[in-house]
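quick one
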Amino acid sequence: MFREVRDNTLYIDGCSTVTLAKKYGTPLYVYSESDIVRRFEELKKCFLEKYPSTRVAYAAKAFFPVAMAKLVDREGMCVDVVSGGELYTAIKAGFPAEKIEFNGNNKQLAEIEMAVEYGIGRIIIDSLQELHLIEDICREKGKKMNVLFRITPGVKSSSHDYIVTGKKDSKFGIPLDDEVILPQIKGAIDSEFVDFYGLHFHVGSQILNNDSHLQALDIMLNLVTKIKEELDYDVKELNVGGGFGVTYVDEERPSYSYYLDPMMEKIEKYCAEKAIERPNVVIEPGRSIVAEAGISLYTIGSIKDIKDIRKYVSVDGGMTDNIRPALYQAEYTGVIANKAEVEKTEVVTICGKCCESGDILIKDVKIPHPESGDLFAIFSTGAYGYSMASNYNKNLIPGVVMVSDGNDRLIVKPQTYEDLLRNEIL
Ligand SMILES: Cc1ncc(COP(=O)(O)O)c(C=O)c1O
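structure w/ pyridoxal-5'-phosphate:
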Protein backbone atom coordinates (compact mmCIF):
# COMPACT_ATOMS: atom_id res chain seq x y z
CA MET A 1 0.00 0.00 0.00
CA PHE A 2 1.57 3.27 -1.04
CA ARG A 3 -0.30 5.20 1.67
CA GLU A 4 0.32 4.24 5.29
CA VAL A 5 0.52 5.66 8.78
CA ARG A 6 3.70 5.43 10.87
CA ASP A 7 4.17 7.16 14.24
CA ASN A 8 1.03 9.26 13.83
CA THR A 9 2.26 10.54 10.45
CA LEU A 10 0.93 9.93 6.95
CA TYR A 11 3.50 8.33 4.64
CA ILE A 12 3.22 8.14 0.88
CA ASP A 13 5.31 5.58 -1.01
CA GLY A 14 7.67 5.29 1.96
CA CYS A 15 8.11 9.05 2.49
CA SER A 16 6.91 11.02 5.51
CA THR A 17 4.56 13.81 4.42
CA VAL A 18 5.82 15.91 7.36
CA THR A 19 9.40 15.58 6.12
CA LEU A 20 8.33 16.39 2.53
CA ALA A 21 6.47 19.49 3.71
CA LYS A 22 9.53 20.66 5.65
CA LYS A 23 11.84 19.99 2.71
CA TYR A 24 9.75 21.48 -0.10
CA GLY A 25 7.22 23.72 1.66
CA THR A 26 3.44 23.75 1.12
CA PRO A 27 1.22 23.71 -0.77
CA LEU A 28 2.76 20.75 -2.53
CA TYR A 29 1.61 18.05 -4.94
CA VAL A 30 3.05 14.63 -4.09
CA TYR A 31 2.80 11.68 -6.49
CA SER A 32 3.57 8.03 -5.80
CA GLU A 33 5.52 6.72 -8.75
CA SER A 34 4.92 3.12 -7.66
CA ASP A 35 1.17 3.66 -7.79
CA ILE A 36 1.31 5.11 -11.31
CA VAL A 37 3.48 2.19 -12.44
CA ARG A 38 1.08 -0.24 -10.76
CA ARG A 39 -1.77 1.11 -12.91
CA PHE A 40 0.22 0.66 -16.10
CA GLU A 41 1.20 -2.85 -14.98
CA GLU A 42 -2.47 -3.63 -14.42
CA LEU A 43 -3.29 -2.44 -17.93
CA LYS A 44 -0.46 -4.50 -19.40
CA LYS A 45 -1.80 -7.63 -17.73
CA CYS A 46 -5.51 -7.23 -18.27
CA PHE A 47 -5.48 -5.53 -21.66
CA LEU A 48 -2.24 -5.29 -23.65
CA GLU A 49 -1.03 -8.83 -22.93
CA LYS A 50 -4.48 -10.39 -22.88
CA TYR A 51 -5.66 -8.97 -26.19
CA PRO A 52 -3.38 -8.64 -29.23
CA SER A 53 -3.44 -5.48 -31.38
CA THR A 54 -4.26 -3.13 -28.53
CA ARG A 55 -2.69 0.14 -27.34
CA VAL A 56 -2.90 2.39 -24.31
CA ALA A 57 -2.56 6.12 -25.04
CA TYR A 58 -2.28 7.87 -21.66
CA ALA A 59 -4.41 11.05 -21.69
CA ALA A 60 -1.84 13.75 -21.00
CA LYS A 61 -4.47 16.26 -19.89
CA ALA A 62 -4.77 14.49 -16.52
CA PHE A 63 -1.15 15.27 -15.50
CA PHE A 64 1.76 15.83 -17.83
CA PRO A 65 5.01 17.35 -16.64
CA VAL A 66 8.08 16.20 -18.59
CA ALA A 67 8.87 13.63 -15.86
CA MET A 68 5.44 12.07 -16.35
CA ALA A 69 5.93 11.98 -20.13
CA LYS A 70 9.20 10.10 -19.55
CA LEU A 71 7.50 7.66 -17.19
CA VAL A 72 4.71 6.99 -19.70
CA ASP A 73 7.32 6.33 -22.38
CA ARG A 74 9.41 4.11 -20.09
CA GLU A 75 6.29 2.04 -19.42
CA GLY A 76 5.91 1.55 -23.16
CA MET A 77 2.65 3.42 -23.50
CA CYS A 78 1.48 5.85 -26.18
CA VAL A 79 0.24 9.32 -25.29
CA ASP A 80 -2.87 11.26 -26.21
CA VAL A 81 -2.29 15.02 -26.41
CA VAL A 82 -4.82 17.79 -27.01
CA SER A 83 -2.75 20.91 -27.60
CA GLY A 84 0.48 22.21 -29.04
CA GLY A 85 1.70 22.57 -25.45
CA GLU A 86 1.14 18.92 -24.58
CA LEU A 87 2.65 17.89 -27.91
CA TYR A 88 5.70 20.08 -27.28
CA THR A 89 6.08 18.62 -23.77
CA ALA A 90 5.99 15.08 -25.16
CA ILE A 91 8.58 15.87 -27.83
CA LYS A 92 10.84 17.68 -25.31
CA ALA A 93 10.61 14.60 -23.08
CA GLY A 94 11.93 12.50 -25.98
CA PHE A 95 8.61 10.75 -26.54
CA PRO A 96 8.68 8.86 -29.87
CA ALA A 97 6.58 10.95 -32.28
CA GLU A 98 4.89 7.91 -33.78
CA LYS A 99 3.48 7.04 -30.34
CA ILE A 100 1.71 10.40 -29.99
CA GLU A 101 -1.99 10.76 -30.84
CA PHE A 102 -3.64 14.16 -31.14
CA ASN A 103 -7.22 14.84 -29.97
CA GLY A 104 -9.07 18.13 -29.46
CA ASN A 105 -12.08 20.02 -30.77
CA ASN A 106 -10.46 23.06 -32.34
CA LYS A 107 -6.93 22.20 -33.30
CA GLN A 108 -5.13 25.26 -34.54
CA LEU A 109 -3.40 25.45 -37.89
CA ALA A 110 -0.03 25.85 -36.15
CA GLU A 111 -0.74 22.84 -33.93
CA ILE A 112 -1.59 20.63 -36.89
CA GLU A 113 1.50 21.86 -38.74
CA MET A 114 3.59 20.93 -35.70
CA ALA A 115 1.98 17.48 -35.54
CA VAL A 116 2.61 16.87 -39.26
CA GLU A 117 6.22 18.09 -39.04
CA TYR A 118 6.98 15.85 -36.06
CA GLY A 119 5.29 12.95 -37.86
CA ILE A 120 3.05 11.92 -34.95
CA GLY A 121 1.18 8.62 -35.00
CA ARG A 122 -2.43 9.73 -35.33
CA ILE A 123 -4.64 12.78 -35.53
CA ILE A 124 -8.14 12.20 -34.27
CA ILE A 125 -10.28 14.43 -36.45
CA ASP A 126 -12.93 16.23 -34.43
CA SER A 127 -14.76 18.28 -37.04
CA LEU A 128 -15.47 18.17 -40.73
CA GLN A 129 -13.24 21.16 -41.53
CA GLU A 130 -10.29 19.52 -39.85
CA LEU A 131 -9.85 16.83 -42.50
CA HIS A 132 -9.37 19.49 -45.16
CA LEU A 133 -6.98 21.45 -42.97
CA ILE A 134 -4.84 18.35 -42.44
CA GLU A 135 -4.92 17.52 -46.16
CA ASP A 136 -3.80 21.05 -47.08
CA ILE A 137 -0.91 20.93 -44.62
CA CYS A 138 0.17 17.45 -45.73
CA ARG A 139 -0.02 18.48 -49.40
CA GLU A 140 2.16 21.49 -48.70
CA LYS A 141 4.70 19.53 -46.67
CA GLY A 142 4.68 16.42 -48.84
CA LYS A 143 3.56 14.22 -45.91
CA LYS A 144 0.77 11.83 -45.09
CA MET A 145 -1.05 11.59 -41.75
CA ASN A 146 -2.88 8.69 -40.12
CA VAL A 147 -6.33 9.80 -39.01
CA LEU A 148 -9.36 8.61 -37.09
CA PHE A 149 -12.75 10.33 -36.85
CA ARG A 150 -14.06 11.18 -33.40
CA ILE A 151 -17.77 10.41 -33.38
CA THR A 152 -20.28 11.53 -30.75
CA PRO A 153 -22.27 8.36 -30.26
CA GLY A 154 -25.23 10.18 -28.63
CA VAL A 155 -24.87 8.38 -25.30
CA LYS A 156 -25.23 10.15 -21.97
CA SER A 157 -23.04 8.77 -19.19
CA SER A 158 -23.82 9.23 -15.51
CA SER A 159 -21.21 11.86 -14.68
CA HIS A 160 -21.22 15.60 -14.04
CA ASP A 161 -22.43 17.52 -17.12
CA TYR A 162 -19.04 19.20 -17.53
CA ILE A 163 -17.29 15.86 -17.97
CA VAL A 164 -19.90 14.13 -20.11
CA THR A 165 -18.72 14.24 -23.70
CA GLY A 166 -20.50 11.51 -25.66
CA LYS A 167 -24.02 12.95 -25.87
CA LYS A 168 -25.21 14.46 -29.14
CA ASP A 169 -25.34 18.03 -27.79
CA SER A 170 -21.56 18.29 -27.32
CA LYS A 171 -18.80 20.51 -28.57
CA PHE A 172 -16.70 17.38 -29.10
CA GLY A 173 -16.71 15.04 -32.05
CA ILE A 174 -18.74 14.67 -35.20
CA PRO A 175 -22.44 13.89 -34.69
CA LEU A 176 -23.50 10.52 -35.96
CA ASP A 177 -25.43 11.41 -39.06
CA ASP A 178 -25.00 8.96 -41.95
CA GLU A 179 -25.52 11.46 -44.75
CA VAL A 180 -22.78 13.63 -43.38
CA ILE A 181 -20.33 11.21 -41.86
CA LEU A 182 -20.14 8.54 -44.58
CA PRO A 183 -19.19 10.93 -47.42
CA GLN A 184 -16.53 12.45 -45.16
CA ILE A 185 -15.11 9.04 -44.30
CA LYS A 186 -15.13 8.20 -48.01
CA GLY A 187 -13.23 11.43 -48.61
CA ALA A 188 -10.63 10.35 -46.05
CA ILE A 189 -10.37 6.82 -47.46
CA ASP A 190 -9.80 8.20 -50.97
CA SER A 191 -7.43 10.97 -49.89
CA GLU A 192 -3.81 11.04 -51.06
CA PHE A 193 -2.81 12.94 -47.95
CA VAL A 194 -4.30 10.97 -45.08
CA ASP A 195 -4.54 7.30 -44.16
CA PHE A 196 -7.95 6.65 -42.70
CA TYR A 197 -7.56 4.26 -39.75
CA GLY A 198 -10.92 4.26 -38.05
CA LEU A 199 -13.18 5.62 -35.36
CA HIS A 200 -12.86 7.17 -31.94
CA PHE A 201 -15.34 7.87 -29.18
CA HIS A 202 -15.08 9.06 -25.59
CA VAL A 203 -18.20 9.01 -23.46
CA GLY A 204 -17.05 11.12 -20.52
CA SER A 205 -14.96 10.97 -17.39
CA GLN A 206 -15.16 9.47 -13.87
CA ILE A 207 -17.61 6.84 -15.09
CA LEU A 208 -18.18 4.10 -12.52
CA ASN A 209 -20.55 1.97 -14.58
CA ASN A 210 -19.74 0.28 -17.89
CA ASP A 211 -23.17 0.85 -19.51
CA SER A 212 -22.31 3.97 -21.48
CA HIS A 213 -19.08 2.52 -22.85
CA LEU A 214 -20.96 -0.59 -24.01
CA GLN A 215 -23.85 1.38 -25.50
CA ALA A 216 -21.46 3.65 -27.38
CA LEU A 217 -19.54 0.64 -28.62
CA ASP A 218 -22.70 -0.90 -30.09
CA ILE A 219 -23.39 2.32 -31.96
CA MET A 220 -19.83 2.46 -33.22
CA LEU A 221 -19.88 -1.17 -34.38
CA ASN A 222 -22.99 -0.33 -36.39
CA LEU A 223 -21.01 2.39 -38.08
CA VAL A 224 -18.18 -0.07 -38.75
CA THR A 225 -20.75 -2.24 -40.56
CA LYS A 226 -22.04 0.69 -42.59
CA ILE A 227 -18.51 1.62 -43.60
CA LYS A 228 -17.96 -1.97 -44.71
CA GLU A 229 -21.26 -2.28 -46.55
CA GLU A 230 -21.44 1.13 -48.15
CA LEU A 231 -17.79 1.98 -48.66
CA ASP A 232 -16.35 -1.55 -48.81
CA TYR A 233 -13.73 -0.58 -46.25
CA ASP A 234 -12.54 -2.52 -43.17
CA VAL A 235 -12.03 -0.19 -40.21
CA LYS A 236 -8.51 -0.77 -38.90
CA GLU A 237 -8.77 0.88 -35.53
CA LEU A 238 -11.33 1.58 -32.83
CA ASN A 239 -10.41 4.02 -30.07
CA VAL A 240 -12.83 3.73 -27.16
CA GLY A 241 -11.46 6.68 -25.14
CA GLY A 242 -10.93 6.83 -21.39
CA GLY A 243 -13.25 7.79 -18.59
CA PHE A 244 -12.67 4.92 -16.15
CA GLY A 245 -13.68 5.94 -12.62
CA VAL A 246 -11.59 6.21 -9.45
CA THR A 247 -12.04 6.51 -5.70
CA TYR A 248 -12.21 10.05 -4.36
CA VAL A 249 -14.14 9.52 -1.11
CA ASP A 250 -15.80 6.12 -0.81
CA GLU A 251 -16.67 5.20 -4.41
CA GLU A 252 -15.73 1.65 -5.29
CA ARG A 253 -13.20 1.85 -8.11
CA PRO A 254 -14.05 -0.77 -10.75
CA SER A 255 -11.17 -2.79 -12.19
CA TYR A 256 -10.04 -2.03 -15.74
CA SER A 257 -11.29 -5.50 -16.71
CA TYR A 258 -14.79 -4.52 -15.66
CA TYR A 259 -14.89 -2.07 -18.58
CA LEU A 260 -12.52 -3.73 -21.01
CA ASP A 261 -13.48 -7.43 -20.93
CA PRO A 262 -17.10 -6.93 -22.01
CA MET A 263 -16.01 -4.39 -24.62
CA MET A 264 -13.41 -6.75 -26.07
CA GLU A 265 -15.89 -9.63 -25.99
CA LYS A 266 -18.40 -7.54 -27.91
CA ILE A 267 -15.83 -6.49 -30.50
CA GLU A 268 -14.49 -10.00 -30.99
CA LYS A 269 -17.96 -11.53 -31.25
CA TYR A 270 -18.99 -8.87 -33.70
CA CYS A 271 -15.95 -9.41 -35.91
CA ALA A 272 -16.35 -13.20 -35.85
CA GLU A 273 -20.00 -12.88 -36.90
CA LYS A 274 -19.18 -10.46 -39.69
CA ALA A 275 -16.08 -12.40 -40.69
CA ILE A 276 -13.93 -9.32 -40.57
CA GLU A 277 -10.52 -8.83 -39.05
CA ARG A 278 -10.70 -7.31 -35.59
CA PRO A 279 -9.58 -3.68 -35.63
CA ASN A 280 -6.81 -2.50 -33.26
CA VAL A 281 -8.40 -1.36 -30.03
CA VAL A 282 -7.04 1.72 -28.27
CA ILE A 283 -7.92 3.17 -24.86
CA GLU A 284 -7.08 6.62 -23.49
CA PRO A 285 -7.09 6.50 -19.69
CA GLY A 286 -6.00 9.63 -17.85
CA ARG A 287 -7.67 10.04 -14.47
CA SER A 288 -7.52 6.33 -13.58
CA ILE A 289 -3.72 6.30 -13.99
CA VAL A 290 -2.83 9.27 -11.79
CA ALA A 291 -5.78 10.40 -9.62
CA GLU A 292 -5.17 8.22 -6.59
CA ALA A 293 -1.38 8.38 -6.93
CA GLY A 294 -1.45 12.10 -6.08
CA ILE A 295 -2.10 13.91 -2.82
CA SER A 296 -2.03 17.62 -2.04
CA LEU A 297 -0.29 18.82 1.11
CA TYR A 298 -1.29 22.10 2.75
CA THR A 299 -0.52 23.93 5.96
CA ILE A 300 -3.51 24.90 8.05
CA GLY A 301 -3.69 28.64 8.81
CA SER A 302 -6.69 30.52 10.10
CA ILE A 303 -9.50 28.59 11.77
CA LYS A 304 -12.94 30.19 12.19
CA ASP A 305 -15.57 28.56 14.31
CA ILE A 306 -18.94 30.11 13.45
CA LYS A 307 -21.03 28.96 16.36
CA ASP A 308 -23.76 26.46 15.48
CA ILE A 309 -23.00 26.91 11.78
CA ARG A 310 -19.62 25.72 10.59
CA LYS A 311 -15.92 25.58 11.37
CA TYR A 312 -13.83 26.89 8.48
CA VAL A 313 -10.28 25.53 8.41
CA SER A 314 -8.22 27.50 5.87
CA VAL A 315 -5.25 26.08 4.03
CA ASP A 316 -2.47 27.79 2.09
CA GLY A 317 -3.77 26.70 -1.34
CA GLY A 318 -7.24 26.25 -2.77
CA MET A 319 -9.07 26.51 -6.08
CA THR A 320 -5.87 27.65 -7.78
CA ASP A 321 -4.24 24.25 -7.25
CA ASN A 322 -7.47 22.24 -7.32
CA ILE A 323 -10.36 23.78 -9.25
CA ARG A 324 -12.45 20.61 -9.38
CA PRO A 325 -14.63 21.20 -6.27
CA ALA A 326 -15.48 24.74 -7.45
CA LEU A 327 -15.86 23.73 -11.10
CA TYR A 328 -18.04 20.66 -10.73
CA GLN A 329 -18.67 20.03 -7.07
CA ALA A 330 -16.07 17.30 -6.97
CA GLU A 331 -15.76 15.68 -3.55
CA TYR A 332 -12.59 14.75 -1.73
CA THR A 333 -11.49 13.55 1.64
CA GLY A 334 -8.34 14.08 3.65
CA VAL A 335 -6.57 13.86 6.98
CA ILE A 336 -4.37 15.91 9.24
CA ALA A 337 -1.15 14.29 8.14
CA ASN A 338 0.72 14.94 11.39
CA LYS A 339 -2.20 13.63 13.51
CA ALA A 340 -2.95 10.55 11.47
CA GLU A 341 -3.70 8.38 14.51
CA VAL A 342 -5.50 10.96 16.62
CA GLU A 343 -9.21 10.40 17.17
CA LYS A 344 -11.45 12.31 14.75
CA THR A 345 -13.74 14.46 16.82
CA GLU A 346 -14.75 17.45 14.67
CA VAL A 347 -16.58 17.97 11.40
CA VAL A 348 -15.07 20.95 9.58
CA THR A 349 -14.93 22.57 6.15
CA ILE A 350 -11.54 22.85 4.48
CA CYS A 351 -11.36 26.07 2.50
CA GLY A 352 -8.75 27.70 0.32
CA LYS A 353 -7.29 31.20 0.46
CA CYS A 354 -8.71 32.57 -2.81
CA CYS A 355 -11.18 35.44 -3.01
CA GLU A 356 -14.19 33.33 -3.90
CA SER A 357 -16.78 31.96 -1.48
CA GLY A 358 -16.83 28.87 -3.65
CA ASP A 359 -13.20 28.18 -2.82
CA ILE A 360 -14.08 25.20 -0.65
CA LEU A 361 -11.93 22.09 -1.00
CA ILE A 362 -13.88 19.74 1.29
CA LYS A 363 -17.22 20.35 2.90
CA ASP A 364 -17.80 18.47 6.15
CA VAL A 365 -14.84 16.23 6.79
CA LYS A 366 -14.30 14.57 10.15
CA ILE A 367 -10.83 15.22 11.53
CA PRO A 368 -9.02 15.49 14.88
CA HIS A 369 -8.96 18.90 16.56
CA PRO A 370 -7.18 21.14 14.01
CA GLU A 371 -4.58 23.75 14.92
CA SER A 372 -2.75 26.35 12.86
CA GLY A 373 0.47 24.84 11.59
CA ASP A 374 -0.98 21.33 11.16
CA LEU A 375 -0.39 19.65 7.82
CA PHE A 376 -3.52 18.74 5.85
CA ALA A 377 -3.41 16.09 3.12
CA ILE A 378 -6.15 15.76 0.52
CA PHE A 379 -6.28 12.38 -1.22
CA SER A 380 -6.75 11.50 -4.90
CA THR A 381 -5.80 14.90 -6.29
CA GLY A 382 -3.43 13.50 -8.92
CA ALA A 383 -5.67 14.04 -11.95
CA TYR A 384 -6.81 17.43 -13.26
CA GLY A 385 -5.37 19.25 -10.23
CA TYR A 386 -1.92 20.37 -11.23
CA SER A 387 -2.91 20.31 -14.91
CA MET A 388 -5.81 22.72 -14.25
CA ALA A 389 -3.92 24.97 -11.81
CA SER A 390 -4.11 28.74 -12.27
CA ASN A 391 -2.58 31.93 -10.95
CA TYR A 392 -5.87 33.44 -9.80
CA ASN A 393 -5.21 36.14 -7.16
CA LYS A 394 -1.60 35.79 -8.29
CA ASN A 395 -1.24 32.77 -6.07
CA LEU A 396 1.72 30.62 -7.02
CA ILE A 397 1.33 27.16 -8.54
CA PRO A 398 2.86 24.64 -6.14
CA GLY A 399 5.76 22.36 -6.95
CA VAL A 400 5.41 18.65 -7.68
CA VAL A 401 7.37 15.92 -5.94
CA MET A 402 7.54 12.33 -7.15
CA VAL A 403 8.12 9.77 -4.43
CA SER A 404 9.07 6.15 -4.79
CA ASP A 405 10.03 3.56 -2.22
CA GLY A 406 11.21 6.09 0.36
CA ASN A 407 12.96 8.42 -2.12
CA ASP A 408 11.71 11.81 -3.22
CA ARG A 409 12.56 14.05 -6.16
CA LEU A 410 11.25 17.40 -7.23
CA ILE A 411 9.86 17.12 -10.76
CA VAL A 412 8.32 20.58 -11.05
CA LYS A 413 9.70 23.54 -9.10
CA PRO A 414 7.19 25.67 -7.22
CA GLN A 415 6.50 28.95 -9.01
CA THR A 416 8.18 32.09 -7.75
CA TYR A 417 6.98 35.70 -7.83
CA GLU A 418 9.54 36.30 -10.61
CA ASP A 419 7.85 33.52 -12.63
CA LEU A 420 4.55 35.33 -12.18
CA LEU A 421 5.85 38.47 -13.87
CA ARG A 422 7.97 36.73 -16.49
CA ASN A 423 5.71 37.63 -19.40
CA GLU A 424 4.64 41.01 -18.14
CA ILE A 425 6.08 44.12 -19.76
CA LEU A 426 7.47 46.00 -16.76
C1 LIG B 1 -10.77 12.29 -25.90
C2 LIG B 1 -10.45 11.99 -24.50
N1 LIG B 1 -9.73 10.90 -24.22
C3 LIG B 1 -9.38 10.59 -22.96
C4 LIG B 1 -9.75 11.38 -21.90
C5 LIG B 1 -9.33 10.99 -20.52
O1 LIG B 1 -10.40 10.71 -19.70
P1 LIG B 1 -10.14 10.18 -18.23
O2 LIG B 1 -9.17 11.09 -17.60
O3 LIG B 1 -11.48 10.24 -17.59
O4 LIG B 1 -9.64 8.79 -18.35
C6 LIG B 1 -10.52 12.53 -22.13
C7 LIG B 1 -10.92 13.37 -21.01
O5 LIG B 1 -11.86 14.07 -20.98
C8 LIG B 1 -10.87 12.84 -23.47
O6 LIG B 1 -11.59 13.92 -23.76
